[in-house]
Amino acid sequence: MVYIVIAMSFALAGGIVGRLKGSSFLLWFLISGLFPIVGLAAAVLYRFDTEEPRRSCPTCGHVCMLHDAICTRCGCELDFPDESEILQPPAPA
User: Fold this and answer.
1) pTM recorded for the entire structure
2) Could you tell me if 20 and 38 lie in one domain?
3) Which of 25, 45, 73, 93 is the most exposed, fewest CB within 10 Å of its CB?
4) Are residues 40 and 63 in the same domain?
C-alpha cells in the first residue's frame, strides 16, 4: 500500500514536469509511476521541447519542428531548411 502511494506521487510529479517541458503528461506519468525515482529523474533531465527551433512548411505554412521530415498537417516531404528559414522559439515570458 505504501509503495502505491509513493509510486503515484512520483508519477504525478513526473507527469507535471514532463508537461512543463512541453512533452506528454501521460507518457511521463506512466514512466515515473513504473520506475519512480529513475522516471522522475529522466523527466527532470529531459530536454525542453518548447525551446527547439522550428520551421514552416512551404506547402501549407504549418509550423513544424526542425527535425520533422514530413509535415504533420499536409504530409509534404520537408528538406533540411536554410538558415534563413529556421524560426527561433519564442522567448519565455
Assistant:
1) 0.63
2) yes
3) 93
4) no
Strand order in the sheet with 54-56: 63-65, 54-56, 86-87
What is Dmax (Cα atoms) for the chain?
Answer: 56
Which amino acid does the sequence have at 50?
T
Range of the domain at 40: 2-49
Which residue, among 5, 3, 27, 1, has the nearest Cα to 15 in the 3D structure?
27
Q: Which of 55, 18, 52 is nearest to 33 (CA)?
A: 18
Pair 6, 44 in one domain: yes
CB 40 within 8 Å of CB 59:
no
* pLDDT tens profile 34-44: 999 999 999 99
The Cα-based distances of 80 to 18, 54, 60, 77 in angstroms read: 28, 11, 17, 10
**Amino acid code (one letter) for 41:** A
Residue carrying the nine cell digits 504533420 = 72
